[in-house]
Design brief:
Strand content: under 5%
CATH class of the domain at 285-387: Mainly Alpha
CATH superfamily of the domain at 285-387: Tetratricopeptide repeat domain
CATH architecture of the domain at 285-387: Alpha Horseshoe
Structural class: mainly alpha
Largest sheet: 2 strands, antiparallel
Number of helices: 19
Strand order of the largest sheet: 1-2
Helix content: over 70%
CATH topology of the domain at 285-387: Serine Threonine Protein Phosphatase 5, Tetratricopeptide repeat
Oligomer: single chain
Distance between the termini: 111 Å
Length: 400
């Protein structure tokens, strides 16, 4: 449509110009340095048109190789993009081998082969070909050195998926050396330390994680508490326990798991009277089941006084199984077998646990009830075993 309008306008203008030029073609004289050229106006216009056409043609010929190269590049890029798309579709559909081949072939014609090699590495990984996967990652790095972090992170994630935790940690440490405080890398390193239970390394990493990590505050709190717990469990004496506790923040000092680890550390160091006093004061204002049960494990010097304190709490917490179990243990220390039995049977009726059955079995053994003790032990073991434990019948020596 547009071209037709231009042709019509050109014909109209040409006809109009021809009418005037033929009726009076005009006369042009060019005098230059003694040379004189005479011609009509139509001839001059024709020469000018030929000159412009010649310039246009020479320019086209001059630019042709470059434009042909650009066209060929666009064609190769388009073909590469099509192969990339088909390769991605093949991988998504589960045809990993075909997808890997197409992605690798498309890389040579791609303007940015990094993505091709990374996806080819993923396809190889999904097939279980780790050596070929690592080769694609190597090519990705060689083609795009500035993407070293992306390649290393991809490799670490593949290694983590394969359960190669030590290799993944080495890869992430190398990334950390190249790019200090990389948020995602730090998060992965922290997760690995937690999984591998490398509490010392996690403790050193936590300050950096709090400044640069993408992790949620809840996760960091969990890790920090676990690090403190392990440090308290490994403390050799009361001074070491105190030193670790000094490093616990005020916000974490009310955590039940940490308090449990702290008091157990003091108990290992022989500070039972101190623990009995501090726990008693704490439970008076802040009742917590795990700490109540721990109170029954404290071996204070005056066990009778300790039992009276526990039984005093029964007035307000008479149906608390943790308190009942603690009171039963303290009764055992004071050799009050009947009262201990009553407490334990109440605990088992309210909330049976392996610990309650273990203490109950020990009491029944002490009281000479071996069969009942065996039943109690079996019930307790049955709660932690995969399935119920059957009783072993008594062997008849006469039938042996």
């Amino acid at each position: 449509m547009k071209f037709g309008i231009i042709v019509v306008l050109a014909l109209f203008i040409s006809a109009f110009a021809a009418h005037f030029l033929l009726s009076d073609p005009g006369y042009v004289i060019i005098n230059f340095r003694g040379y004189m050229v005479e011609m009509s106006v139509p001839v001059l216009i024709g020469l000018a048109v030929l000159l412009l056409f010649g310039i246009w043609l020479i320019r086209k010929i001059y630019l042709a190789p470059r434009r042909l190269g650009e066209a060929a590049g666009r064609y190769r890029s388009a073909r590469s993009g099509q192969k990339l798309t088909r390769g991605m579709i093949a991988v998504a559909e589960g045809d990993f081998a075909r997808g890997e081949k197409m992605l690798a072939r498309a890389a040579s014609g791609s303007d940015s082969p990094l993505f091709n090699y990374l996806q080819a590495a993923r396809a190889a990984h999904l097939q279980g070909h780790d050596e070929r996967r690592d080769e694609w990652l190597r090519l990705a790095y060689e083609q795009t050195p500035e993407a070293a972090n992306a390649v290393l992170l991809t490799q670490a994630e593949f290694q983590l998926d394969r359960g190669q935790n030590e290799l993944a940690l080495a890869t992430l440490r190398r990334l950390d050396e190249n790019s200090r405080d990389h948020a995602h890398a730090l998060a992965l390193i922290g997760r690995l330390y937690f999984k591998l239970e490398d509490w010392d390394s996690l403790s050193e990493l936590l300050p950096r994680l709090k400044k640069n990590s993408q992790l949620k505050a809840e996760t960091l709190d969990t890790w920090q508490i676990r690090v403190h717990q392990e440090a308290l469990r490994n403390a050799a004496d009361s001074e070491a326990v105190a030193e670790v506790w000094k490093g616990v923040s005020r916000a974490h000092r009310s955590n039940t798991a940490l308090l449990d680890a702290y008091y157990r550390g003091l108990m290992r160091a022989g500070e039972h009277d101190r623990v009995e006093k501090e726990l008693g004061s704490l439970l008076k204002s802040n009742w917590r089941g795990p700490l109540v049960e721990l109170f029954g494990l404290v071996e204070a010097t005056d066990s009778s006084k300790q039992l009276k304190r526990a039984e005093g709490w029964l007035k307000n917490h008479g149906d608390d199984p943790d308190l009942l179990l603690a009171a039963a243990r303290l009764c055992l220390r004071n050799e009050l077998w009947g009262k201990a039995r009553s407490y334990l049977e109440t605990v088992i009726s309210i909330r049976p646990t392996p610990d309650a059955y273990q203490v109950y079995g020990a009491l029944l053994n002490e009281m000479g009830e071996a069969d009942a003790a065996a039943t109690a032990y079996r019930e307790g073991l049955g709660m932690v075993a995969a399935g119920p434990l059957t009783a072993i019948p008594h062997m008849d020596a006469d039938k042996g």
